[in-house]
């Protein structure tokens, strides 16, 4: 793996909202070596709170002796615009003032994220991508990119994602943002602002990432005698604390609103017409227990993307199954890249 690298866009980035973002930095990692024919590129689009180090959050799928082994592939993973893992974000100093923008950071959309990564692709001199892959927010980016530049991507792998963020998904995100906004420290615009709200927001999010069955499997009490201090309560607190230790509330608000903006049909005559633009050979993966991005959303993708293959994982892990069920995903990829997909 390379050290975390940075690319600065040569020109200001005009956002879909019309605002202009100056001094844009994109942080990225590469893994493996670009071969002589330059046809072994795998580009990974990460999800909401992940980073450019794909081997750290997608182990079992990326890494030595995994399906995407850097001995065979040249893997690129770039941190999304607005994230706090190296790319320009609400906590980055604004070139105009030298101070972070905090809650004044402009509205970002999925298309803005794609625009920044497209500039990086051109900077790296990558003309063809063998496989573009992403799940959840990462899948939204990958889909948008494949629609914009249909001849660049040979294969497209979309996991637990959609063509348009649903009212249900937007409502979940808004509930989390309300938790952040209810924390008075968020409005003080300091790096630690909104930490308590972010802790509560993550607890809300976990309910959409997992499933009834997953909680029953891992958080059930071993005794019938308890009346307080339940394992499920401690788990929610633990997950909230974990995120607060590595993330910030301002970034969380920006990225969740970007997810809400996702609609490939905007300005393209609707979702179905937009999906028909995809030329990549496409695998769409749904998860039976996913309540945030239910399988009907992936089935819609497969129905309208020309020649797309749909596969479904029977998992009790809910939405997070796309990060956890790597053995199953590997099997699906092996079948997808075989001569036939029975």
UniProtKB/TrEMBL annotation:
Concerning Pfam families, the annotation shows: Abhydrolase_1 (PF00561)
Is Protein biosynthesis there in the keyword field? no
Keyword Acyltransferase among record annotations = yes
- The reaction(s) this protein catalyses: L-homoserine + acetyl-CoA = O-acetyl-L-homoserine + CoA
What interactions and quaternary structure are annotated? Answer: Homodimer.
PANTHER family in alphabetical order? HOMOSERINE O-ACETYLTRANSFERASE (PTHR32268:SF11)
Task: Give the family this protein belongs to, as stated in its UniProt record.
Answer: Belongs to the AB hydrolase superfamily. MetX family.
**Protein name in the entry:** Homoserine O-acetyltransferase
Native species: Hymenobacter telluris
């Amino acid at each position: 793996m390379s050290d975390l690298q940075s690319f600065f866009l040569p020109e200001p980035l005009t956002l879909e909202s019309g605002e202009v973002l100056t001094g844009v930095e994109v942080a990225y990692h590469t893994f493996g070596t670009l071969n002589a024919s330059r046809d072994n590129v795998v580009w990974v689009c990460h999800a909401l709170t992940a980073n450019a180090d794909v081997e750290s959050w997608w182990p079992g799928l990326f890494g030595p002796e995994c399906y995407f082994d850097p001995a065979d592939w040249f893997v690129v993973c770039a941190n999304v615009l607005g994230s706090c893992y190296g790319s320009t974000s609400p906590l980055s100093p604004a070139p105009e003032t030298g101070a972070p923008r905090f809650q004044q950071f402009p509205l970002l959309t999925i298309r803005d994220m794609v625009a920044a990564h497209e500039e990086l692709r051109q900077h790296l001199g990558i003309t063809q991508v063998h496989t573009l892959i992403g799940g959840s927010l990462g899948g939204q980016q990958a889909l948008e990119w494949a629609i914009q530049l249909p001849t660049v991507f040979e294969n497209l792998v979309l996991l637990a994602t959609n063509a348009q963020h649903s009212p249900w998904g937007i409502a979940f995100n808004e509930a989390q943002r309300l938790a952040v906004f209810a924390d008075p420290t968020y409005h003080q615009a300091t790096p630690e602002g909104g930490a308590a709200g972010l802790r509560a927001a993550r607890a809300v999010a976990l309910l959409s990432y997992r499933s009834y069955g997953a909680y029953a499997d891992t958080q059930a009490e071993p005794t019938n005698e308890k009346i307080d201090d339940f394992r499920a309560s401690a788990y929610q607190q633990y997950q909230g604390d974990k995120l607060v230790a590595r993330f910030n509330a301002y970034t969380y608000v920006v990225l969740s609103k970007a997810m809400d903006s996702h609609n490939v049909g905007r300005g393209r005559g609707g979702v179905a017409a937009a999906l028909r633009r995809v030329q990549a050979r496409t695998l769409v993966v749904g998860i039976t227990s996913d309540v945030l991005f239910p399988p009907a959303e992936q089935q819609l993708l497969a129905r309208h993307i020309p020649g797309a293959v749909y596969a479904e994982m029977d998992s009790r892990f809910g939405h997070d199954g796309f990060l956890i069920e790597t053995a199953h995903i590997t099997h699906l990829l092996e079948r997808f890249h075989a001569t036939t997909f029975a």
